Every structure is written in structure tokens, then in C-alpha cells.
Amino acid sequence: MSLVFPKVTRFGTALALVLAVIGSSNVEGESDADTARPPLEIRFRSEQGGLRAKKDDASCGLPPTRDRVYDPETGVFHIHFKARDFSESGFEVAKTADRITKPVVFRLTGVPRAYGCLGHPLTLSVGGKTYGLDPSCASLYSRDERQFDKGLFQSERKGDVLTVQFTEKGQALLKAGAQITLAIDTGW
Predict the structure, then answer these.
(1) Do 104 and 163 form a contact (C-beta atoms < 8 A)?
(2) Where are the alpha helices (DSSP H) in the chain?
(3) pLDDT band at residue 79 under the 50/70/90 scheme
(4) pLDDT tens-digit profile of 155-174?
(5) What is the mean pLDDT of the segment spanning 47-62?
(6) CA 84 to CA 38: how far, in whole Å?
């Protein structure tokens, strides 16, 4: 009995190489499901400050040009604040993945430079502590715990767009119940 091997063509060789590269592109221990699934589950707040009950009364949500909050290709969360005078806008971390495999980055649009006399700049509140997320407003913070901490976050502002990347130490703060908020009060 003799074995018969199929004729190997250039196409077959190229296809085998492509499949081998694609199959090996995942980092060890990281599946496609890990990279496609968001590391955080986000819940938007209503304009009244409570957790969202209806989709159209949310104080923040998807930017108009996006169809989902998390982009699995870039690993960026895209959130647009619909900040209005005399109201607090924000969202809450509802759930965190057991393991976060890449840095958590928020691209936040609609974040003004001026918050008004009684407003407050963008902050993260978790476990009874508040952390400033907007370094351009560091002088507005009155308490030390609200100062911007470069060991926890990296931030970049371009107009009303604020991009915040959490360091590994900062990611430890992203637990269920953590809230990111801002308040606008320009009524004076």
C-alpha cells in the first residue's frame, strides 16, 4: 500500500502560512473572546443622577457617530457627556472582568474645560474616595484626594475631548460601583 499526498501548490502553501500566522497571533492565554469582550460593563446615569431607567434620559451615552461603547479593536471606551447646567452627568462601572488584559482607556467627549462655580470637574469616585481625572483642572480641586495622580491615570485633552488611560494601579480602582461624574453650574 502506498500513501498518496495531494499536490502542493503555491496557493496551498500560502494558505497554510496565513492560517499559521493567524493562529499564533493571540497572546498566550488570551482568547479571541477575551479581546472582543469589554473588560468593564458600564451603566449610564439619568439626568436626575440615578441609574438610567430610560434610554433617552441618560446624562451620557454613545457619541453620535458610534454604535457601541467599547471598541474591541482599539480597546477604547467611547462615551459622550450630555452635560447640562445644574445637573451631574456620569456613568457607573456595573461589572469588571476577572482579568483585564490591556489598559483601560476612556475617550470622553462633551467634557467642557469650564465647570462653573458650583460644578465639579471630571472625577472617579470609589470606596468613599474621589480622584481627579482632568489634570487641566487640578487647581480647582479643594481637597488633596481630588488632585490628579499621574501614578493612577494618564490624561490628554483636546478641546472638549478628554482621553483618560488608567495605569495598572489605577485599573485596580475600577470596581463595581465606581462612578465617573462631572457637574456643570454656570448659572452665576
Answers:
(1) no
(2) 10-24, 32-36, 168-171
(3) very high
(4) 999 999 999 999 999 999 99
(5) 59
(6) 28
Domain count, the chain: 1
Helix, strand or coil, per DSSP, at residue 52: coil
Q: Dihedral sign, CA of 84, 173, 63, 41?
A: negative
Q: Confirm whether 86 is domain-assigned.
A: yes
Report if residue 29 sits inside a domain: no
The three cell numbers locating residue 162: 478628554
Q: Which domain holds residue 146?
A: 38-184
Q: Measure the CA–CA gap between 61 and 77, rounded to whole angstroms.
A: 11
| pLDDT band of 47, cuts 50, 70, 90 | low
Strands 105-109 and 161-166: antiparallel
pLDDT tens digits, residue range 114-141? 776 667 888 899 999 888 888 776 555 5
Answer for the pair 88, 179: CB distance below 8 angstroms, yes or no.
no
The C-alpha cell that represents 174 in the structure block: 475600577
